[in-house]
Amino acid sequence: MNDDLKALIRTIPDFPKPGIQFRDITTLLLDPRGLAQTVARMAAATVGPVDLVAGIEARGFLFAAALAVPLGAGVLLIRKDGKLPGATIAEDYALEYGQDRIAMHEDALVPGQRVLLVDDLIATGGTARAAIRLLRKAGAEVEQAQFVIDLPDLGGAAALAADGVRVDSLFAFPGH
Fold it and tell me: Can you give the C-alpha Rg of the chain in angstroms?
């Protein structure tokens, strides 16, 4: 259904390490029609009204800001810990080797606000799941997450669904 947009994604083999097929969205971002259609189709897939669109650093910021406009919502930034000024709350999550931490401003939302989580790609789901925990810890209602690309073989969308979140993506690529 979204093969026109999928065709705008460039695949770079063996980046950032051998065996990885990197799905590069910069070629989609360079295409005005493709970018507009991406935002329009994500907006059409949004269930119910949302108060805020939360974007995960860094490529998620691009889609969150663009999507917030047609949805009439604000944008909430989820960043790596230590990148936001002022008081923040944070959430740890596991990486393949070690841990990482994401944060948001502690006053970024009012408890009960409906938040749509957005990023460019869902792979294992570690960062997205941590973002949902963080948002919910702050009192947000998070019922849906949207991604441009899903890598279903890595299980991230299934993990979010198991956490009670509806997951939508425009298209999927097999493999890693």
Answer: 16
Residues recognised as catalytic: 59, 96
Assess whether the previous peptide bond of 16 is cis (omega < 30° from 0).
yes
In sequence order, the β-bridge partners of residue 89 are 104
The model's pTM: 0.96
- Read off the pLDDT of each residue in 136-147 and give the average, rounded to a whole number: 98
Q: What is the number of other CB atoms lying within 10 angstroms of the CB of residue 33?
A: 10
- 90-96, long-range: CB within 8 Å, 24+ apart, which pairs? 90/134, 91/130, 91/131, 91/133, 91/134, 91/137, 92/130, 93/126, 93/127, 93/129, 93/130, 94/126, 95/126
Length of the chain: 176
Q: Which of 72, 75, 50 is CA-nearest to residue 64?
A: 75
